[in-house]
């Protein structure tokens, strides 16, 4: 990832989808259940967010495809 996100930034599900390239929330939640994506944190009520540094580390740690 070329642009780093502020460390304390919290991301919505739509932000995570946009950054990761996944198209649906169901795909995102499936990855979370499989422990292949960071889980969100609760910020009160029914609101959840992802820590930007967790998402950045996850995306940065994905293996590159070699051709």
From TrEMBL:
Pfam families, per the entry:
HTH_17
State the source organism's domain of life: Bacteria
Residue ranges constituting the Helix-turn-helix domain according to the UniProt record: 10-59
The record's InterPro entries line, in alphabetical order, gives:
HTH_17
Q: What is this protein called?
A: Helix-turn-helix transcriptional regulator
């Amino acid at each position: 990832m070329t642009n780093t996100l502020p460390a304390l930034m919290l991301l919505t599900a739509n932000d995570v989808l946009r950054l990761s390239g996944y198209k649906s929330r169901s795909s995102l939640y499936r990855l979370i259940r499989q422990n292949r994506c960071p889980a969100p944190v609760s910020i009160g009520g029914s609101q959840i967010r992802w820590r930007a540094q967790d998402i950045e580390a996850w995306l940065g740690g994905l293996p590159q495809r070699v051709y």
